[in-house]
Amino acid sequence: MLTPRQCAGVLRALGDETRLRILESLLVREKCVGELVAEVGKQQPHVSHHLRILREAGLIEGIREGQRVCYRVSPSIQRQLKDARQQAIDLGCCRISFPDEVLVPRFRSKAPHATRKAS
């Protein structure tokens, strides 16, 4: 469980639209900085700044692959979402919910016979 100070730090990290978009993207799958730059539509230094804030808050981690750095949601959050098949991250002090379309693809991609409904 997070202390009130730690919880406030995580909530501050999520209090920016760009960081929230990055986290939602990483909830679907691991991505390298270049992919996130293209997806978010911001310049690389700007995206790297937001990634640092999310990393310092303990929400994501970076993995160096040669000259590239790829990011993923931290293992503790991954376990939480996988074990309970939750649509929310439980920080202990509060829960942060995500829309179905953000997390559902993560579980569908692991099911070999899953099909997507036509809209």
Task: Describe the structure using short key phrases.
single chain; 119 residues; alpha+beta; Arc Repressor Mutant, subunit A; three-stranded antiparallel beta sheet; two-stranded antiparallel ribbon
Structure write-up:
The chain has 119 residues and is α+β, with helices and mostly antiparallel strands. The protein has a single domain, classed as Winged helix-like DNA-binding domain superfamily/Winged helix DNA-binding domain (Arc Repressor Mutant, subunit A), CATH 1.10.10. Helix content is 52%, strand content 17%. The chain is built from six helices and five strands, in the order ααβααββαββα. It has helices at 4-13, 17-28, 33-40, 44-56, 75-84, 100-108, and strands at 31-32, 60-65, 68-73, 88-90, 95-97. The chain has a three-stranded antiparallel beta sheet. A two-stranded antiparallel sheet has the order 4-5. β2 and β3 (68-73) form a beta hairpin.
